[in-house]
Amino acid sequence: MAGFQDHLNKEIKRRKLTDADDDDKKSLNTPLLSEQKRFSFKSFLLIILVGVALLTLVVFWAFINGDTTKQNLAKSLSSKTVLIEKSGNSTSLKIIEVSPVVAIPPTNGVSIKPETIKNNTDSNNLVSAPIPGLYESTDDGLIPIIRQKDGLTPFDAYKKPSSALSDKIKVSFVINDVGLSKTNTYNLIKKLPDSVTLAFSPYAQGLNELVGAARSAGHEVWLNLPLESKDYPLKDPGPFTLLKNVSEEQNKERLMKLLASASGYVGFIPNKDHVYDSKTVKTSPTLNEIYTRGLVIFDSKQVSDNFAKELASKYDSTFGKVDIWLDNDLTPVALNRQIRQIIEIGNMRKQIVVMLNNYPASINAMNKFLSSSAASDFDLTPLSSQVKYAE
Question: 103-389 is classed in which CATH architecture?
Answer without folding.
Answer: Alpha-Beta Barrel (3.20)
